[in-house]
Write a structure and sequence with these properties.
By secondary structure, the protein is an alpha+beta fold. Helices cover 26% and strands 23% of the residues. The N and C termini lie far apart (45 Å).
């Protein structure tokens, strides 16, 4: 077998093995319900073997495919670091696939093939975000997704398709296209977020605010992650904010490893700010 490299692509069978391991860990009380749901969403969005291994590296695993996967990923120093949401107070620069992302959620953003610059779609317009939601609604009969992640030029979505399965879809200048159709298996019941409830205008206003109010100098790029449920308990200050059916994470990055986060509900109300350098 060829040596595992840091950017080794994950197979769908790898994701399925990780989903099984996460379910076993949840059943064995190693994970809370919220931790389980968050890691499941990240596993669904993962495109690299190291991302999957990072979701398991603190768990006690029985001998089997998942433990073998972690061992394979660790053949390269530095691989296997968990692809968790990075609070600004930890100040860790990360590349989102998402969920990404929720994960995602970031949803395989790093895996998309690049369009020519002159052909790229500007996803930072109200019209294009609403077109994405309309396309999902038309194709699937519902705008509910497991998670969505919007980059400057495209969006990635994990969409449930019944019978315990999901599909990875992408929205770009080509419209809604499938990346890995019909091959994903869900582990148990997973919360969904309804994109139809998203206020695109407020979202973009909040993104502009995030770019100037989170203590990040020279914002180089930003991501929008849309996830089900309230702000996760592991986020500093989450216990003090209102519980919601879904939330949006706006992240801004500088070339100097500065990261700031702004959390809102789907209608655009600000829930939590985590500026760069916050304690």
């Amino acid at each position: 077998m060829a040596a595992v490299v840091r950017r080794t692509r994950a197979r769908q069978s790898d994701r399925d093995d990780v989903l099984d391991a996460l379910s076993a860990a949840y059943g064995d009380s190693q994970l809370t319900e919220q931790e389980h749901e968050r890691r499941v969403a990240e596993a669904i969005r993962a495109t690299q073997l190291s991302e999957l291994a990072g979701l398991l590296d603190d768990l006690q695993l029985e001998p089997g495919p998942a433990r073998d996967l972690v061992a394979r990923a660790q053949e390269v120093p530095g691989a296997g670091t968990r692809r968790e949401r990075t609070p600004a107070w930890k100040v860790v620069a990360m590349t989102l696939g998402g969920l990404a992302v929720v994960v995602v959620a970031v949803v395989a953003i790093g895996a998309w093939s690049g369009d020519e610059a002159t052909e790229r779609l500007d996803m930072r317009t109200e019209h294009n975000i609403e077109s994405m939601v309309d396309d999902v609604q038309e194709r699937f009969g519902s705008a509910e997704v497991i998670a969505a992640e919007i980059d400057e030029t495209r969006a990635g979505l994990s969409v449930p398709v019944g019978s315990g399965r999901y599909e990875q879809w992408f929205f770009s200048r080509h419209g809604l296209t499938d990346y890995e159709p019909g091959s994903g298996r869900l582990s148990g019941r997973l919360a969904l977020v309804d994109l139809a409830e998203l206020d695109a205008g407020r979202l973009l206003e909040n993104l502009e605010t995030a770019s100037t109010s989170l203590g990040v100098d020279e914002v180089e790029r930003s991501t929008i992650q849309i996830e089900p449920g309230p702000v996760p308990d592991g986020v500093p200050g989450a216990a003090k904010v209102a519980k919601t059916d879904g939330h949006v994470i706006l992240r801004v990055f500088s070339p100097y490893q500065e990261v700031g986060e702004l959390y809102t509900d789907l209608e655009g109300r600000v829930l939590l700010r985590l500026p760069f350098g916050a304690p």
